[in-house]
Amino acid sequence: MQGLLSTKEAAERLGLSPGTLEVWRCLGKGPRYIKIGRRVGYDASDLDLYVESCKIIPLEEQANLPRPR
Length: 69
Known about the structure:
Elements lengths: L6 H8 L3 H10 L6 E3 L2 E3 L2 H10 L5 H5 L6
Antiparallel strand pairs: 1-2
Helix pairs in contact: 1-2
């Protein structure tokens, strides 16, 4: 699983504990991961996408966004 981050490395990158990522995997939450056999790995770009998806737009900014038609 060369080129992938381990659970520990991914957790460090996200500022979480490895245990949190393990629980999230069981709950179907969190960033995408790859599982081959017993090994789990994370692609750095998937972690970046996950962080981006967690952004919350303040209500003040939402008021200025165009509404979909």
